[in-house]
Amino acid sequence: MSITENGVAVADGSLTGEPESAHAHGQGPLYKLAIGAVGIVYGDIGTSPIYAFRETFTGHHVLEVDKVHIFGVLSLIFWSMMIIVTLKYVTIIMRADNKGEGGSLALLALINRSLGDKKKWTSGVVLLGVFATALFYGDSMITPAVTVLSAVEGLETVNGGLAPFVIPIALGILIALFAIQARGTARVGLMFGPVMVLYFVALAALGVFHIIDKPSVVLAMLNPLNAVYFFSSDFVRAFVALGSVVLAVTGAEALYADMGHFGRRPIRVSWLYFVMPALLLNYLGQGAMILTADTASAAAKIQDPFFYLAPDALRLPLVLLATAASIIASQAVISGAFSVTQQAIQLGFVPRLRITHTSESTAGQIYIPIVNWALMIMVLLLVVSFRTSSNLTGAYGIAVVGAMLIDSVLISVVLRQMWNWNRFAVGALVALFFLVDFSYLSANLLKVPQGGWFPLLVAAIAFTLLTTWAKGRQLMIARLTEMSLPMKVFVKSAVPSATRVPGTAVFLTSSENGVPPALLHNLKHNKVLHERVFLLTIKIKDVPYVNAEKRSSVQDFGHGFWRIVLRYGFMEEIDVPAALAKIQECGPACKPMDTSYFLSRQTLLTSARPAMAVWREKLFAWMMRNAETAMEFFKLPTNRVVELGSQVEI
Asked: Which DSSP letter does residue 543 get?
């Protein structure tokens, strides 16, 4: 992996063995962190009861509403939660943190750093991690659409005459949600925890209210033989039903991705002792309600069993509470898209984009305009095109299951190659995970004609963009390195005859070797050198945070030339002037008005024998032209920057 644009490059990950940074974990009392985790982490999986049980019976492949099928579905939901969420994510994958951070890219960076000398693993693992990231973008478009729309559709259970207003209300909520992103969500975020706690309490209470009428559903859910009997009696329908059952565990990957915000323990505690019991009780309540209803009533209630759990007088408050929960779930996904994009930029898979920090106290509160508006447009188009949450669930799930399968592959590498677990134990676990993941993936592939093509298309486009940028930058830096002049030769030949002028010149360069093209061009055209010259390289390490004492290193070439390397983690914000001000090995501190920053801007030329397909070269050139300027990305003073262009063939 590499980032290389005016001085940014990922190093070989030599910063191993560092203590975990305090920035990488939530701090505070356990109960506060656990409540915060309930508000942020569990919004997606928490809103699944609104539509998951319903879609199993009334989706694109209708399932008969009887005891065998209800018991079978409840058993599948329970054991899916146990295997996928509790065992796979909460118990095992969350142990594989990258200095406290989780998520596919963080796990990818961890594996890449640990197995850097095992090339047979590295390239394949990198591609898998990148594809998991690409799948996330498809999921981040569908989640807000399906959660908000399914919650607002509850109005139809209150008053059937409100049906024409469902889509306009959902569109209004989504537009407002995306519009407030630029102002930050810190204040609204304070309410997330209490609202979601109230929501999960309501889930549990409504479930218990109906379980009392049919307590046998509890044993039915716990007994795996009910799932086995479901398959043995009606294999085809049971297999197809997996495509909807998996909706009950969508959002499981968020437990791992958000680990850096709260820490491992609060997320585990809130899942095991609060969220999971509430979810299971609600699914049991939905099953019990349908089983105790007469045939006509069951046929009506199965169309929206979640909202029919509530008595008539409480149905509207439940709709409002579910809508609030769906907004919170959508907010978590949108924030996750910002965080993943920031990591991808730092790790070299996405060009620089404008990033705004919306909170002075919380580094993780960021806003990326282009991502926000692109997501909003796609989400609104999804709502208008699919029109109902039931139609949208046809597109939902396949991206999540694909990411879960990739996580299984990545964790198998961790278990065997990094942790050296017993091969038989690893084989048994991996076989179980792959069996479950492949089963769900296969069932979801049947949904491709009904909308499953959408997240796959988005993932394919995102994967192409991510890999094209990474490959193009790799080729460009290799070509620039070939063309570079050794620094010692330059100092001996050019310095004695050059005119020196007062001040400090900072030349940003992607390589730690050779003379930056901007320095050569400056000397060629202006025929002067500053009395102090810094050759600055910025490296993004494959750890989230770099300790302050390892931030910089300095090499003295004599004659006023210094090479400086600044190191940052992939979760950190880069501020070049602030970092240079703390360096004491190069003489007096840099004065803002006496310091000039020189940047290189490359123009791509297609070579006679291009290393990439021509269409990918053109795509890469377009991405590079539209990237955020290094001046803003590195927080360089606007009136002290000089850009010098050059042409490069790749």
From this structure: S
SS3 state of residue 62: coil
> Residue 322 and residue 144: Cα distance in Å, rounded?
13
What SS3 class is residue 478? helix
Distance, CA of 425 to CA of 430 (rounded, Å): 9
User: Is the confidence at residue 5, as pLDDT, over 60?
Assistant: no
**What residue ranges in 432-560 does DSSP mark as E strands?**
499-508, 528-540, 552-558
Element (H, E) at 123: helix 119-152
Give dist(CA 235, CA 244) in Å, integer.
Answer: 15
Q: For residue 328, which of 220, 200, 446, 421 has the smallest C-alpha distance?
A: 200
Rounded Cα–Cα distance for residues 468 and 9 (Å): 17
- Tell me the one-letter amino acid at 212: I
pLDDT per residue as tens digits for the range 387-409 = 999 888 888 888 889 989 998 98
Show the domains of the chain with their CATH numbers: 8-471 (1.20.1740.10), 484-649 (no CATH)
What is the rounded CA–CA span in Å between residue 142 and residue 66? 31
CA distance 571 to 22: 13
Dihedral of the CA atoms 591, 592, 594, 595 (nearest 10)? 110
User: In this structure, what token pair is assigned to residue 303?
Assistant: 């169309």
Residue 9 has pLDDT above 70, yes or no: no
CA–CA distance, 103 with 336 (Å, rounded to integer): 10
pLDDT of residue 189: 63
pTM, entire model: 0.83
- Angstrom distance (rounded) from CA 440 to CA 254: 18
Q: Which two tokens stand for residue 142?
A: 């569908």
Asked if 6 and 600 count as a contact pair (C-beta separation under 8 A), the reply is yes
Q: What is the pLDDT of residues 228-258, one digit of tens each?
A: 999 999 899 999 999 999 999 988 877 887 7
Q: What is the pLDDT of residue 3?
A: 33
CA 401 – CA 442 distance, rounded (Å)? 10
